[in-house]
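User: Sequence in, structure out. Go.
Assistant: Echoing your sequence, followed by the structure tokens.
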Amino acid sequence: MGLSKPFLDAISTDSVRGPLNLITDVPGVSVGQTTFNSGTHHTGITVVKPTADNIFLNKLPAAAHVINGFGKSTGLVQINELGTLETPIVLTNTFSVGTAETALAEDMMAENPDIGDTTSTVNPVIMECNDGDINDIRDVFITKKDVLNTLHHTGESFDEGTVGAGVGMSCYDLKGGIGSASRVIKIDGKSFTMGALVLSNYGFLRDLNIYNVPVGEKLATFKAEQKQKEKGSIVTILATDIPFNSRQLTRIAKRASVGITRTGAFIGNGSGEIVLAFSTANRIAHYPKTELSSQAAITDDKIDRYFRMTVSVVEEAILSVLTHATTVTDRKDNPRLSLHDALRDYQAEHQDPDIVRLQDQLGI
């Protein structure tokens, strides 16, 4: 998926899109979603499974980076201390974090009877955004069963936009949600992949800039519903089969902020902007057979091109949110317009040639 048209920001010239242009182009990664979108319920669950096998027994190198810490994610402290990921990743709304954490812990214990008994506990990773503008977030109705069902139904193909955890999210005061993209790059003659999935719920309309078109300034003169304070968030998941160690993944995760801001955002005070990056190239055994271990890793003096790759894949994932999201009627019966519908309404009165060109470039 990703954008239906070519991505025009050529910051990463030696990488190309993956076959699906989704995070699931990284071998072994799968995604599942549960969507609630009726009445005052506009919320859901998105699960990223990093591997098809037992991730607790064979962990992945990982790193978390907090760009701005206005958030309620779980599991990130241990990831940055130990440098490993040992569970799937669950995305949902802020007030469903506790339910999701309990469900994920129970699912991991069911798969691993030794957890909390003969070995350590488990580190569930739940990440969230506040969808309370659109969803009645005080009605905490998502159940453990909903989370477990999502965990058990993942695949390579998934929808973007107003789905899963993204149903109630906004992006630049327009409809936000889930977006994804991927890049493939050659390393020593072999193909490796990086994919991004974002839960996008941030930004002021007036700041939105796409391909150097100040589309937000144009729409801001036309669209009345705009927030006055930044109180959204964006969660970014980066998956790759490039053999980065946890230190290098920290450096990769930091570059996600550049992709986020290339569409105009400035990382506001109330925006929880958090990145989680993992690599499937190396595995870390929970029960190691030897005390010494070795892992392949990229040479640091060649890492700039992977930084560029990161920026590119994150920026396209955000644009994919905006192009796939559909207009939703919020909990107060007001429409939260998609970019497609906002541009259509704007053009009905203005016939702006810059917007005509942008609509064609984005395929909307």
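User: And one key feature?
Assistant: The mean pLDDT is 95.
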